[in-house]
Amino acid sequence: SMESIGVLMMCPMSSYLENELQKRFNLIRFWNFQEKSVFLETHRNSIGAVVGNASTGADAELINDLPKLEIISSFSVGIDKIDLGKCKEKGIRVTNTPDVLTEDVADVAISLILTLLRRLCECDRYVRSGKWKYGDFQLTTKFSGKSVGILGLGRIGTAIAKRAEAFSCPVSYYSRRVKPDLGYKYYPTVVELAQNSDILVVACPLTDETRHIVNRNVMDALGAKGVLINIGRGPHVDEQELVNALTEGRLGGAALDVFEQEPHVPEELFGLQNVVLLPHVGSGTVETENAMADLVVANLEAHFAGESLLTPVV
Amino acid sequence: MAEESPLVLVHRPPTMKYMDEPLTRYYRILTTHASSDPLPLFLSRHASSVRAVVSIGRFKIDAGFLSRLPSLQLIVCTSVGTDHVDLPECNRRGIAVTNAGGAYSEDVADYAVGLLISFLRRIPAADRYVRSGTWAKCGEFQLGIKLSGKRVGILGLGSIGSLIAKRLEPFGCIISYNSTCQKQSIPYLYYPDVVSLAANNDVIVLCCALNDQTRHIVNREVMESLGKNGVIINVGRGGLIDEKEMVKCLVEGVIGGAGLDAFEKEPGVPVELFGLDNVVLSPHCAIATPGSFDNVVELALANLKAFFSNQPLISRVRLN
């Protein structure tokens, strides 16, 4: 029966998911162990599945440590924290949570643009601090009609494009493959996309090829009037370069939901007016997290029942 | 012999100067704040021949003001709202009034969407959570509310309301409306009154004109109808909402929350709101981008030019 299957949850990510896993499997919480060696001594042979998320996955070392591991089910769509090569080598299946979080993440991307350009956080602070009594808030930057460049036109990138179109924004993109059916302008390099965009949105998966894809050249191309929006992964952006570009005024602004070393954020950003900083909330709604959890559970149940996986990556 | 250019009276706060230079290209201007005389005296002394007034900001243009301008035939407002103008008196006197038309509509529509998403996804609080260093110490931020699938009722489907609806559609919102005009061509569901609009929606967005019919149109009954998960977004006028009741409803959880760009006694804001985390507050700046001001300058000049050359006005407001 499935109740004897050991499922290793790597970190707290959703109490709903914990409960659902606990009901069906032998749930083992990795964070309850002070030392990995203690955990391995007791449990290494009973773990059939690992559940990870955007911050904690399964590297080669962990995969090698768990001889009975059959499947890794990630509570996220991005699976850059899982050693896919090692999984393929060992025949371990990998699933993620696409589609169910697409809308929420796209909504946050647009929210980041509006919040940054129209200075919504500062407006709220301005009223709450009582400053409005002494004068009007400054002028802010219009969003409608601005050119939006999307780096990665997958599910999330396409959802962002559709939303931006409703604001009369011309949309262009850079992607591994041209997608002529969608009708947006394609640029063959990220630098050209940045040169031709007021707003650059990062929405591609994190791979070896896309690490630091937004580098100094891209930021310079985006320029002092351009803004960067990141709802992908922190390592997409050369964060130190970003801090320099912002503090030196070479980049107009940045609105970020992800960082290289979450939850640590470069403190130089805290005092800047032209940034918005969010604690990785892209898929953070009750409805979406529950849907993600249901998908994780459904994939695990399907696997251990010998049925087809719902959302396999490997 | 060159004709002297017409005299235009500019009624504005001292700080709002953006119309002065554009106007002086074509007209001689008189500004009401420039003199130390009390306003009625100033008008009687200097403005008896004035045929056109440009109204900037929300300084009242009441019957008393109008009575000092016997030659007045046109008031050009740089705002969309004309609730600061005694419209019935203008109607009686045969004075035409123009407003900002669609000059601000995109910026206000953008802002309304921004207020809504930033409320549901708790953006200002989330940004504070990071900047204060709390994320590093305390871990995951609280969950927000999904926008997709929400029913959004728009009160006032004019220029701004239509653009809000268009923007929210790809977010998966279900749009309905209540408006003074119900048209067959409008693809959204119509509700005959505000209470039923509130009862059948998760969010109501206020973007209608403030007048005698709409003052406090969002009252306790409407808020109870909207319910404990309901959200009000106000990019219209503060007077559309019974503000005292709204504060109670927010504090007591009668409604879920609000995104507010306008208040009854600006820049005064009820202090009870400052400590709430179920509101996003904004200092009446939904219009405030350089592009919007460029648009309204262009429109104001176009209305004046039409008037002085006996052509139809561009953005005339109905007075009755």
Automatic annotation (TrEMBL), chain A:
<dbReference type="InterPro" id="IPR029752">
    <property type="entry name" value="D-isomer_DH_CS1"/>
</dbReference>
<dbReference type="InterPro" id="IPR006140">
    <property type="entry name" value="D-isomer_DH_NAD-bd"/>
</dbReference>
<keyword id="KW-0520">NAD</keyword>
<protein>
    <recommendedName>
        <fullName>Hydroxyphenylpyruvate reductase</fullName>
    </recommendedName>
</protein>
<dbReference type="Pfam" id="PF00389">
    <property type="entry name" value="2-Hacid_dh"/>
</dbReference>
<dbReference type="Pfam" id="PF02826">
    <property type="entry name" value="2-Hacid_dh_C"/>
</dbReference>
<dbReference type="InterPro" id="IPR006139">
    <property type="entry name" value="D-isomer_2_OHA_DH_cat_dom"/>
</dbReference>
<dbReference type="InterPro" id="IPR050223">
    <property type="entry name" value="D-isomer_2-hydroxyacid_DH"/>
</dbReference>
<feature type="domain" description="D-isomer specific 2-hydroxyacid dehydrogenase catalytic">
    <location>
        <begin position="11"/>
        <end position="313"/>
    </location>
</feature>
<keyword id="KW-0560">Oxidoreductase</keyword>
<comment type="similarity">
    <text>Belongs to the D-isomer specific 2-hydroxyacid dehydrogenase family.</text>
</comment>
<dbReference type="InterPro" id="IPR036291">
    <property type="entry name" value="NAD(P)-bd_dom_sf"/>
</dbReference>
<feature type="domain" description="D-isomer specific 2-hydroxyacid dehydrogenase NAD-binding">
    <location>
        <begin position="110"/>
        <end position="282"/>
    </location>
</feature>
UniProtKB/TrEMBL annotation, chain B:
<dbReference type="InterPro" id="IPR006140">
    <property type="entry name" value="D-isomer_DH_NAD-bd"/>
</dbReference>
<dbReference type="InterPro" id="IPR006139">
    <property type="entry name" value="D-isomer_2_OHA_DH_cat_dom"/>
</dbReference>
<protein>
    <recommendedName>
        <fullName>D-isomer specific 2-hydroxyacid dehydrogenase NAD-binding domain-containing protein</fullName>
    </recommendedName>
</protein>
<dbReference type="Pfam" id="PF02826">
    <property type="entry name" value="2-Hacid_dh_C"/>
</dbReference>
<feature type="domain" description="D-isomer specific 2-hydroxyacid dehydrogenase NAD-binding">
    <location>
        <begin position="113"/>
        <end position="286"/>
    </location>
</feature>
<dbReference type="Pfam" id="PF00389">
    <property type="entry name" value="2-Hacid_dh"/>
</dbReference>
<feature type="domain" description="D-isomer specific 2-hydroxyacid dehydrogenase catalytic">
    <location>
        <begin position="13"/>
        <end position="317"/>
    </location>
</feature>
<comment type="similarity">
    <text>Belongs to the D-isomer specific 2-hydroxyacid dehydrogenase family.</text>
</comment>
<dbReference type="InterPro" id="IPR036291">
    <property type="entry name" value="NAD(P)-bd_dom_sf"/>
</dbReference>
<keyword id="KW-0560">Oxidoreductase</keyword>
<dbReference type="InterPro" id="IPR050223">
    <property type="entry name" value="D-isomer_2-hydroxyacid_DH"/>
</dbReference>
